[in-house]
Design brief:
Length: 180
């Protein structure tokens, strides 16, 4: 048996160290990011979500709920439930086709939604659309895809049980399409 001496120890060692360090990179980067800030909503608080093209929708959270306004989307949580609101420009596309595309997109994030045949509108009638049922591994709820001529609003309300899941009608009623 002939023994050969390793000639590429340096690059092999660098590769081994790199492979060991890579899993730690997301943890390190996450530690540099600012903490998520939740604000507590009061009855007079209204958040405005604005789409890429400038369409605006005002939404209100129930008293005492915690909210995050992320520009074109918002997260509301409280009483064991959570509501996810996202705003999209229609750009002349068919609202039903956009809703179906969003349902497929939600499946990638493990939120399964299916239309249930219902219709819903905001209290002022500025947005209307179809209702649906939402399901994840740990929560169930209802959802809606609301639109007007310019914008689509995806609303998913989830909770661990019936008492903690906000009804979709109560969630979308205070929404208002603002003129941009």
């Amino acid at each position: 048996m002939v023994r050969t001496k390793l000639k590429e120890r340096g690059p092999a060692l660098a590769l081994a160290v790199g492979l060991i360090a890579v899993p730690g990179v997301p943890t390190l980067v996450n530690s540099w990011l600012p903490e998520t800030v939740w604000e507590t909503a009061e009855s007079a608080d209204v958040m405005t979500l604005t789409s890429v093209e400038g369409a605006a929708v005002a939404i209100a959270a129930p008293d005492g709920w915690q909210v995050q306004n992320l520009g074109d989307q918002a997260i509301l949580r409280g009483d064991g439930g959570a509501v996810f609101v996202q705003l999209y420009d229609l750009d002349g596309r068919d609202p039903q086709a956009v809703a179906k595309r969003l349902m497929r997109s939600n499946r990638v994030d493990d939120v399964h939604t299916t239309l249930d045949g219902g219709r819903i509108a905001t209290a002022d009638g500025s947005l209307s659309g179809d209702t649906c049922v939402a399901l994840t591994d740990q929560a169930t709820g209802s959802c809606a895809y609301l639109s007007d001529d310019d914008v689509m609003v995806s609303v998913i309300a989830l909770g661990g049980n019936r008492e903690s899941t906000p009804t979709i009608a109560d969630v979308v009623a205070p929404f208002t399409r603002e003129q941009s």
